[in-house]
Amino acid sequence: MDPMYSESENFAEIENTLDNDLSVEVEDRGSGDNSELDQEASRLIPGLPDDIALFCLARVPRRYHVLLKCVSRKWRDLVCGEEWYSYRKKRNLLESWIYALGRDKSEQLCCYVLDPTRLKRGWKPILGLPHRCIRRKGVGFEVLGKKLFLFGGCGWIEDATNEVYCYDASMNKWNQAASLVVPRCYCVSEVLDEKIFAIGGIGPNSSNLPSWETYNVETSSWTLHEKPNIFPDIEDSIVLDGKIYIRGASSPLSSSAFVYDPSSSTWQSVASELVSGWHGPAVVVDGTLYVLDQSSGTRLMMWQDDIKEWVAVGRLSPLLTKPPCRLVAVENNIFIIGKGLSTVVFNVENARNMDGVLVSTSIPKSISDDDVISCKAITI
């Protein structure tokens, strides 16, 4: 069995078994004090108050959470619930895993996950991607909280759709979610103020969409916003200093960008100095904007806002990167993920280079040859 698939399949099998075969509970409690037995049996860990049990369990590394869920229904409900997520978040126990949306040789969408604390184990597939969307192109890919959203998209014989699917990383399950107001594909997306923004794209009959939508998790609904002068061909987006920046398709001569200010709900043009060096996938680390220039090899650039200039951080070894690449950040590490899930990790705090080439870490090569469409991090 392929080791890349075995772990995910085993975990899925364990969880499915848990759903169907988890009634191993004591039904006959004997002739003793039933109230005491009931109280003891209801505890997370017999003999310990639940607050102490939660204190212990919440410190178990995320990679073992799938095993915790197999102990009992009570543990599974705890690990999959909001109390667990909030408890770990409040105590800085959250861990980020990276999720990549790719397209394989058969033109089907596929999804993978990477645990940054175990890079040598490489990428693992996420099974159960909704069948209705696996052949779509231009699908939106965004993370809000502990959930991953796939929205919109279109196909060769399928017009733009408003369908939305949600993957709950704690439960390892896909479900259909609230639909977009307007069918759209090839939109960009960001998260700001605990809301998903789906911006621009192409609508039914290949019409341009000068609008954006916001998803409110509390109401599980999308709200449509109109903006006549949003340009149609949006290529990239970032969140920087509490604002959303969108960039149009680059050309050898020019590129344009807009910035959204949530305090006034308005879009404004972006200064040409910033736009001039934004040619490639971008990521923000600790308030600093980084861009991967792939026009000639792969070179990491950094925007220095105080002097309004782009500065070269260094080049990446052509032996490690396989453009086109996507970027995602976990703490101070930038993950550069290219074709075939080739992955290079670079720490911005310990930036070093040798003869202009950045010193970085890479993970074992994947057996796939997938094109990577987008990468996001889910923190639990």
UniProtKB/TrEMBL annotation:
The lineage of its organism: Eukaryota, Viridiplantae, Streptophyta, Embryophyta, Tracheophyta. SUPFAM superfamilies: F-box domain, Kelch motif. Keywords: Kelch repeat, Repeat. It comes from the Eukaryota. This is F-box/kelch-repeat protein SKIP4. Residues 46-82 form the F-box domain. SMART domains: Kelch. Pfam families: F-box, Kelch_FKB95. Residues 141-328 form the FKB95-like N-terminal Kelch domain. Coiled coil: none annotated. InterPro entries: F-box-like_dom_sf, F-box_dom, Kelch-typ_b-propeller, Kelch_1, Kelch_FKB95.
